[in-house]
Fold this protein.
Amino acid sequence: HKEIIRQIEDGTLIDNLYKLFNDKLTHLSIWGTEPTLTLPVVENKLDYILNLFPKLRKIHFSTNMLARTETIHNFINKINQIMIQKPDRKMEIQIQMSLDGPKEITDYNRKENSTEIIVSNIIKLAQFLSTTELSDNFNISLIFKPTMCAENIDFFLNQNGTEKYFDFFNDLIG
C-alpha cells in the first residue's frame, strides 16, 4: 500500500501507465486494499492524469463503504470541477459498493453491524449526489457487488432468503 501511494505521489505509476498505453487509455480502475485509502492521492494527481490521458472517459473503484464517505465526496467534487472546465470531454465515475445483501449475509461475511454502517453510508452518498449539481458531461454510476460464500446458501434455502434478498435491495433503492 505504501509503495502504491509513493508511486502515485511521485508520478511513477502514472508515467508507467503512459508508457504502456500512451494517450490511448480510456478506463482507469483503482484497486488494492480499500481504494478510498488512495483516492486522496489520486485526487491530487487528477489534473495530471486527465491531461496525460485525453481519451480517459471512465474511472472505476470498489469500496466496502464502511468508512471514508467524505473521501468519495471530495473525489467527485474534484472531478466535477475539472469537467466544468472541460465541457467537450465526457467522464464517468463508477463506484462499486460491497454490499452482500441483508444483515444475515452481510454481517456474516464482513463484521457485525456492517450492514447498518454500509447502508447508512450509501444513503449519505445518495443524499450528497442528490444535492450536488454535476456538470452535464459528468456521470456517476453506483453498482452493488455482493459477495457470497458457501455458508450463505443456507440463508437462501432455509430462511426464505431469496425473497428477503431481493426485497432488501429493492427497499434500499426504492
